[in-house]
Each structure stands twice: as structure tokens, then as C-alpha cells.
């Protein structure tokens, strides 16, 4: 009587079917996160460093720190 009302449960390959779904989902989520990080963090950081070092003068910075007395081996002039 009641066996006609309830469908038979899936007993085989249940884990494989669920794992396939979750693996594909995890792959697409990880690719999305990697793309968001690359375009949202890494590329703007590269541009900021490139812009900073485009006009950076290391000797001018060294002389400013030397005049401030930061270095022990290079006394201020």
C-alpha cells in the first residue's frame, strides 16, 4: 500500500553525484575570487607602485633622512 506512494531512495552513486556538483561549484567560486582579487587588488597595487616609483628619487630621500640624522654611519652635513 504505502510502497506505491513513496519513491525508492537512491542508494548508489549518491556521494559521487553530490561531489561532482560541489566540485564544480567550488571551482567556479575559486576562479571568481581569484579574478576579483587580481582586478580589485593586485592590478591597482601594481599601478600605485609604478606611479610612485616613476617620480621617486632615492638620493633625494637618502639626503633627507641623512639630514634628519636617521643613519649612524652617514652623519648629517
Provide a descriptive summary of the structure in words.
This protein has 77 residues and is mainly α. Helix content is 68%, strand content 0%. The model has no long low-confidence stretch (mean pLDDT 92).
Keywords for this entry:
single chain, 77 residues, mainly alpha, 68% helix, 0% strand
Q: TL;DR of this structure?
A:
The protein is an all-alpha fold. It is 68% helix and 0% strand.
Radius of gyration: 31 Å
Structural class computed from helices and strand pairing: mainly alpha
- Report on the biggest sheet: none
Helix content: 55-70%
Bulk shape: rod-shaped
Strand content: under 5%
Distance between the termini: 102 Å
Mean pLDDT: 92
Q: Strand-and-helix sequence, N→C?
A: HH
Helix/strand layout:
Blueprint lengths: L13 H41 L3 H11 L9
Amino acid at each position: 500500500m504505502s510502497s506505491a506512494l513513496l519513491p525508492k531512495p537512491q542508494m548508489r552513486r549518491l556521494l559521487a553525484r553530490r561531489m561532482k556538483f560541489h566540485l564544480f561549484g567550488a571551482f567556479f567560486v575559486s576562479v571568481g575570487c581569484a579574478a576579483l582579487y587580481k582586478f580589485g587588488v593586485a592590478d591597482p597595487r601594481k599601478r600605485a607602485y609604478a606611479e610612485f616609483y616613476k617620480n621617486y628619487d632615492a638620493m633625494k630621500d637618502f639626503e633627507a633622512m641623512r639630514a634628519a640624522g636617521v643613519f649612524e654611519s652617514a652623519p648629517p652635513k
